[in-house]
Amino acid sequence: MPPETARSPVNPAPASPPTPDRAATAPFSVADTLMLRAFGQRLELRAPPDPFLRDDTLWRLRTIYEPALSAQTLPLEGTAVDIGAGFGGFALPFALAFPGWMVWAFEPDPDAFAALQANIAALGLDTVIAVPLAVGAGAPDVAPGIDPMRLGAVLEASDAAALAALYPPRPHNRSRALPAFLQAGPPPSEEFEACALPTLPAATLADLRPQLLKLTAPQAETDILTALHDTPVAHLLGEMWTTPPAWLIHEASADPQAPDAPRHCWLPVAGAPMLALRHTAGPETRRPGLDVVVAMYNARSWIAACVDGILSSPGEGIRALVVDDGSTDGSGDLVRDLYGDNPRVRLLPKANGGCASARNHGRIMSDASHVAFVDADDVPGPGLFSELLELARYTGAEVVQGGFEWLHMDGEAEWREPSYEASDPAFTALPRHRFGAGHFVMVPGAALTAGQPTIWRRVYRRDFLDNRKVWFPEHIRAFDDQIFQLLTLQYARNVPMLPHVQYGYRQHPGQDIRQGDERGFYSLEMFRMMLRRALSEGWNDLPPLLASYVNTVNWTHGGLRPDLRPSFARAAADLWVMMQKSFGPGAFATLAPQPFTLPDMDHHIAEVHRRLAGLGDSYAWAFLDSLDMHAPLVRTTGR
Question: Which InterPro entries match (predicted)?
Answer without folding.
Answer: FkbM_mtfrase, Glyco_trans_2-like, Glycosyltransf_2, Nucleotide-diphossugar_trans, SAM-dependent_MTases_sf
